[in-house]
Design goal:
alpha+beta; Rossmann fold; five-stranded antiparallel β-sheet; disordered N terminus
Length: 449
């Protein structure tokens, strides 16, 4: 995927509306040119949606990774000195960072800001496009956005489904009011409700389409209760590791039965509020000082795009996290004080600690190869609640696991997930703009969460 280019800047006599229109057209052309955007209805929506209204300001990070407190610069889209950079960012592929630590959004200033962590942002644009194309919204379908944040995906859906058919449920009351105010300016007939996304929105159910902007350990029962016959639900399945997310597509057939498919991928949405991810960052100095005891291995580092393997490893070798900033593949079990560092030659690995991390990956990989290297898994999501099972097939050697219940989601000792952690640790492979003041590119962020 090629890097996004900067939108056209103003020429002599060019109005602000002309500049915004040119930026929007270039954004759509990039998405089409890279094969991300294929749905003509969504293309029309992208050409009409006014991102400059939904995202009127943006934080950019000016300090590097691992530096605390973080230094930010706040761009105000209404200020002439910020406008070019703000328009560039709003129409790029990056997540647009909007809110620090749940702050009020009515009277933000501009310029340098010190400290805090992001609590709301827009989603990496190709991820939004891919999600909506998977759901295939159509006119007059009832659409529910679970955790819409500033409302970009909700606005796009509303432009397709029509007024009165698109609703968002947002946990953050400040963000819900902010999004509703901006959506009202666009006159799309979209509604944002302040509430718990895990409970859905029963008063407006059932829904033909449900899009979750938060990662969940398993599908909340309320979502299944509110999914209409023939409806589709798309969510990120999150585990304790930010390294290997899964995407679950649930379909309720017209007869009412449920079919669900899980696949791994390069990115996913942030997990539900309060969820704690494992992190390798505190162990980096120790790993650099002592990568461990060398040994040979039959398992060369699996490629990053072996998503079917990595999503299985997230469940079958739990408690592991990858440090994507390391020179070679480095997998860490933070709670077991253990790690594995792959050699450059592909035939050796160094291991440290009481847990043989690489041996576990070797075992999962052998099982994955033995069942045909599946890229997708069948999930059983009971329509009326109960354990949710995942399997690669029906044979005795199938890879199988049970999704953890939402209410018993793990809360390991460690930092709450932040955009900074994800940018540094999970997806260094994401496209970044050729600028240093927007470090890091955060391709995995959700719009609420």
């Amino acid at each position: 995927m090629r890097l996004p280019t900067h939108p056209a800047h103003s020429g002599p006599g060019e109005s602000l509306d002309d500049r915004i229109g040119a930026a929007r057209q270039e954004m759509v052309d990039r998405l089409e040119g890279d094969g991300v955007l294929t749905d003509p209805r969504l293309r029309e929506a992208l050409l009409r949606v006014r991102l400059e209204v939904l995202l009127p300001h943006a934080y950019v990070r000016t300090s590097g990774p691992g530096i605390e407190p973080i230094e930010w610069r706040l761009l105000n889209g209404s200020h002439a000195d910020d406008r070019e950079e703000w328009l560039d960012l709003v129409h790029s592929w990056e997540s647009v960072l909007l809110q620090r630590d749940g702050e009020p959004l009515e009277a933000l200033g501009r310029g340098p800001v010190t400290g805090g962590h992001m609590t709301s942002m827009s989603t990496y644009l190709p991820a939004t496009v891919e999600a909506l194309q998977t759901l295939r919204p159509a006119r007059r379908q009832n659409y529910l956005d679970l955790g819409p944040g500033p409302g970009v995906s909700l606005a796009l859906a509303a432009l397709v489904t029509g007024p009165g058919h698109a609703t968002g449920i947002e946990r953050d009351g400040v963000m819900a009011a902010f999004a509703q105010q901006n959506l009202d300016r666009l006159d799309l007939g979209a509604t944002v409700v302040h509430g718990d996304a895990l409970e859905g929105h029963a008063t407006a159910a059932p829904f033909d389409l449900m899009h979750s902007g938060i990662g969940v350990p398993s599908v909340p029962p309320a979502w299944m209760e509110q999914l209409a016959p023939g409806g589709r639900l798309l969510t990120t399945l999150t585990t304790r590791t930010p390294s290997w997310p899964g995407q679950l597509l649930v379909t309720r057939t017209p007869a009412g039965s449920v079919e669900a498919v899980l696949r791994g991928g390069p990115r996913g949405y942030r997990p539900l509020h309060g969820y704690r991810w494992l992190t390798a960052v505190p162990l980096r100095p120790r790993i650099a000082a002592d990568p461990g005891r060398p040994r040979s291995t039959r398992l060369a580092p699996p490629p990053d795009d072996a998503y079917g393997f990595w999503i299985a490893a997230a469940y079958l070798a739990p408690g592991l996290v990858r440090d994507f900033q390391a020179r070679t593949m480095t997998i860490v079990a933070p709670e077991d004080d253990s790690w594995a560092v792959a050699g450059l030659d592909g035939t050796s690995v160094r291991t440290y600690g009481p847990r043989d991390v690489w041996a576990e990956l070797e075992e999962v990989h052998a099982r994955w190869v033995g069942v045909g290297r599946p890229s997708t898994y069948r999930a059983e999501i009971p329509a009326t609640g109960g354990p949710q099972h995942v399997a690669s097939g029906t044979g005795t050697g199938a890879l199988t696991w049970v999704l953890p219940d939402v209410q018993s989601a793990p809360q390991p000792a460690g930092p709450l997930c932040t955009p900074e952690m994800k940018g540094a640790e999970r997806d260094s492979r994401a496209p970044t703009r050729p600028r240093t003041d927007h470090w890091p590119s955060n391709s995995t962020s959700g719009e609420t969460p």
